[in-house]
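Hi R.,

Here's the chain you asked about this morning:
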Amino acid sequence: MKKIVLLLALLGLVQADEETARVVYDLTTSNMAKFEKNILKGIAVNKAHYEGNLKELEVAVVIHGGAYRFFVKNIKKSVFHTDLKLVEAYPELKKRIASIADTYDVTFLMCKAAMPKHKLKAENIVKFVTLVPNSTIGLIDKQNEGFAYIPVRD
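And here is the predicted structure, written out as tokens:
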């Protein structure tokens, strides 16, 4: 009987090691440096950590508030065109965001409810972003799926 209990305990530990960690970033910042640090660089560092420990990290980002600006197809034709620093950096930034979405299989979810406030339509948003009814629903769904919550705010 002791052998069976020990075997079951060991199987439980092995299974726990194989579990995928999950994180959802609540992205509202309009600050480009904070966005780069927490999302672009942070996701890469966190993914590397988990891979180094033979685990996976599943990442989702819920976009709303000031963060819409990082996910438009054409920054110059958006309400964000007055942010000259962003306009200058955007071609390279847009490539980096697309690369992280593809390389690290990051799920980007955007709050559809506030898009009109920013004069945005679905066709104005980069293709790898999925629209959700609102940010609260996106965050609730991800947290109910076992994602840890990390806010990225101004």
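One quick note: Residues 20-152 form a domain with the Hypothetical Protein Ychn; Chain: A, fold (CATH 3.40.1260.10).

Cheers,
M.
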